Structure formats: C-alpha cells, structure tokens
Amino acid sequence: MVFTHVAGSLHSGMVPVSPQWLRRPADVNALDPALWPASARRDADGELILADQPVSELLDEYLSPLYVVDEAEFRHRARDFRRAFPGWTVYYAGKAFLTKAVARWVAEDGLNLDVCSGNELALALAAGFPPERIGLHGNNKSAEELRQAVAAGVGHIIVDSLDEIARLEDLTAELGRDATVLVRVTTGVEAHTHEYIATAVEDQKFGFSVHGGQALMALVRCQTSPHLNLAGLHSHIGSQIFDTDGFEVAAQRTMRLMAQFHQATGVYLPELDLGGGFGIAYTEQDTPSTPDELNAGLMRIVDQARRGYDLPELTLSIEPGRGIAGPAGVALYTVGTVKVVDLEGGAQRVYVSVDGGMSDNIRPALYAAEYSAILANRTSSAETVLCRVVGKHCEAGDILVHDVFLPADIIPGDILAVPSAGAYSRSMASNYNYLVRPAVVAIGPAGTYPLLRRETFDDLMRLDQG
Questions:
Q1: What are the tens digits of pLDDT across the range 172-215?
Q2: For 71-325, which CATH class?
Q3: Phi then psi for 190, rounded to 5 degrees?
Q4: What angle is formed at CA 254 by the lines to CA 294 and CA 230, rounded to 5 degrees?
Q5: What pLDDT, on the 0 to 100 scale, is given for residue 190?
Q6: Cis omega before residue 270 (within 30°)?
Q7: Does this model's pTM top 0.85?
Q8: Tens of pLDDT along 91-109?
Q9: How far apart are CA 189 and CA 51, in angstroms?
Q10: What is the distance between the alpha carbons of residues 295 and 367, in angstroms, rounded to a whole number?
Q11: Per-residue model confidence as pLDDT tens digits over 333-364
C-alpha cells in the first residue's frame, strides 16, 4: 500500500529517516577515492588539499561558494576514454561543462565536441576548436543556429524533426553548401535512470521513433536531399547509466533500421553514434563502469547486432561528458547555520545551511540527485550525526545533499566540500533570489587560474532595464 500526502512524499509518514544504502562511516575524515580527484588529500592539519591547493586559500582568493576543477583529472579522463575506444570517435558532451579553456583541453587531447546551441557552438569556435570535429545537437535548432553551423562547416548536424530537415534544406540551398547529418532516433529503451534524463522512451521530445516508419521516412528524406549528406544514425538512451545492458536493445533497433534503409534504398549507412550518459560515482552506493568495461560491453553488443543484420563495419561514436567533467570538479561552500530538527519517533536530523544552493546545483531539486559531502577545513573526532545540507534559497526543496553523516561539532564558518560537481552544476546554474553564480577555477600544472570569474551584483543590475 502506498501512502500519499498533499504536501508530497516527505510528509507521508512512510519515508525513512535516511536511505537504506547510507552507512555511518567508520572514519568520517576519510576520502573515498571513488568520489574524489586523484590529487585530493588531507594535510597534517586535516584540511582538504586539491592538486596541492588548500581549500581555505582557494576560498580566500575566489570567495565562497566556489567550483574547483582539477585539470589533470579532467584531461586524464578524456584521454582514458580515447585510449579505451580505439577506432571510435569520442565526443565530449559540452553541455556537461564548457568554457574556452575546456574546449582547448578537449581539442588537445584528441576528442571531438558536441554542442547543443548556437552559443555553445560560438564559444567552441572562439576557442579555436576545429569545426569539422564538432557535432550540433538540439530538438529545436533555429534557422540562425543552423546557418551558423553550416557556415562554420561543422562536422555533423544531428537532425531531430522534419521541420528541421526542411529548414536545413532551405539554408544549404541558399548558401550553396552541403551539410553532413545524422538522424536522431528514439529506440523505446527504458533506461534505468530518472524520468527527466531518460531520452529514448517513445513519449518524449527527442528524435524520430523507430516504430511506425517515422525514422525511416526521415532517413529517406535526408538521403534524397540534394544538399544533405546522410552519414548515419544517432541514438541516446539517457544519463547516469552504470552498465551497457540498456544499449543492447538500442543497438539492435538502430541496426535493424539500418538494414531496412539498405533494403529500401540499396545504401549502407556508414556511421552510428550510440550517445553517452555513462554514470559516475556521486555517493558510496554508485558503481560506475570503467571506460575499458564500457568498451568491452559496447563492442560485444555492436558486433552481435551488426552481424545479425549483415551490415558492414561501422564508424562508431560515443559522447561521454559527465564521465570526464564530473569527477574532476569539487564544489566548496561555507556553513552559515546549523539547526537540529526533531523527527517523529525520537529521531533527529541536523540541517546544515551553506551559502549556495539550488542556484549553483539544481540537480538534487530537479530530479533528486544524490551527492556526498565532507567537512573540508579540518578533521574531527566527534561522533557523526545524520545531516541534510541545504542552501539559502526560499524553497523547501533547496537541498544540496539529502543525507550525509558529518561530525557533530560542525559549526558556522566550517567549509564543506561536495565531490563529483564538475558536470551539470555550473552549466545549469541560475541567479535565483538574485544570487550571483560562483567562480570556476582550474588547478593546473602552473597553479590556479580562473575559468569563469565570479559574477557580481553589478553584472545583474546591468541587465535590468527598469
């Protein structure tokens, strides 16, 4: 039986105080290597050090809250995907986190780049990223964005609707330039992830359904267009996926569509982009696959499906974004208040409020994403207490870490560090309640340098035309 409450599940009386997977840590000061950049350590005083930089000094210089990116960790992960997928094209998913410096890292480490808007494309081009190594995504690309992509000579445009195909046909005819396209298809796969980041179910906004002939019609339309060069198919089943099982059905259905297209036209499509969405560890319960494990699983799946439909060898692509950027980033906050709340049955929860919140990490509020946190400016021998790390916004759902054990002696002024914050934190940040977005600093071989400066209130006031 399911009990509900008009104010939501948190008030239903059936929600446990903490999730079943959460365990009281044997050592609250320990750093789980699965969650932190390889450079993370504590010094003799117990302070968190990231790539030889004490977190307190970072906050003194760049203010709190702050995003920190370990350049070596980011680039190691990018190269690791490239090494683990020889012969594949590896696209870094720019939506995870993108700046001009990040685009240069990606280019230098031999990856391609996918972008989802004209502005992301413009930033990549401003960074000097080779346009032929860029793929443009999006379910509602404007005529101007398509014009921008065609004029720049991007390598692939991933078309998402018949309206877009018609728009692109008109633009390429007008400009006298061809465009290479992939057709995005939805395969009906139910990825084991949150509804909002499952992108291959039938009832959603992306792509052409493989059922009912819609995708085949789009393929034929592109193939017969005088200025569109049809390269193949694109599929994406979701995000934060830990193994390759969900790709098996997607590969079978995309290759069946390729075989149907060959039967109808006599043409073999040469390319298949399987998307990305590979998961990372946010908490101790997460067990993501390594790039080598992902490659082994995907190669088995692709080879089996390709042979089953008697298709020739394919040019294959993947799009890791979170898997590269996420573990390289750490978010730093300063504690402002500590409040003990009595719960039913005699339990208690400690609410630790920090100087950021849903404006700098919307994922927990958007789809209940789980994170971890540690006391970062010192170690503690105090007993641990169940805490909820919350922000300063005027929303009850402004939660950064739903459940975490922290030392009972945590006080205002302490620093909290949240690992795996490099993807979809700054890129989804907002100015809710007129908070400014934090700075993003990188720590590289030559020391610390800003990727994005901290916004100021003056920045926001310049937008106000009142």
A1: 999 999 999 999 999 876 554 434 334 444 666 889 998 878 99
A2: alpha beta
A3: -95, 90
A4: 110
A5: 59
A6: no
A7: yes
A8: 999 999 999 999 999 999 9
A9: 40
A10: 28
A11: 999 999 999 988 888 899 999 999 999 999 99
Q: Which CATH number fits domain 16-69+327-463: 2.40.37.10, 3.40.190.170, 3.40.50.10610, 3.90.190.20?
A: 2.40.37.10
Distances 320 to 70, 97, 204, 289 between C-alpha atoms, Å = 18, 12, 22, 12
Report the first-to-last Cα separation within the chain, whole angstroms.
54
Instruction: Report residue 16's pLDDT band, with 50, 70 and 90 as the boundaries.
Output: low
Q: Which amino acid is at 64?
A: S
Each domain of the chain, given as residue ranges in start order, spans: 16-69+327-463, 71-325
Look up 394 and say whether it is catalytic. yes
pLDDT at 19 (0 to 100): 84
C-beta neighbour count of 293 within 10 angstroms: 15
- pLDDT (tens digit per residue) in 145-154: 999 999 999 9
Which residues, in sequence order, are bridge partners of residue 349?
341
Which DSSP symbol is given to 202?
S
Instruction: Pick the catalytic residue from 116, 222, 387, 394.
Output: 394
Q: Where are the alpha helices (DSSP H) in 186-290?
A: 214-223, 245-265
Say which residues have a Cβ less than 8 Å from residue 401's Cβ, sequence separation at least 6: 364, 370, 371, 372, 373, 387, 388, 389, 418
Kindly report the CA angle at 458 between 456 and 462, in degrees rounded to 5? 130
Q: Residues 73-96: what's their mean pLDDT?
A: 98
**CA distances in angstroms from 432 to 85, 203, 356, 360, 393, listed in the order given:** 40, 30, 11, 9, 8
Q: How many other C-beta atoms are found inside a 10 Å radius of the C-beta of residue 13? A: 9
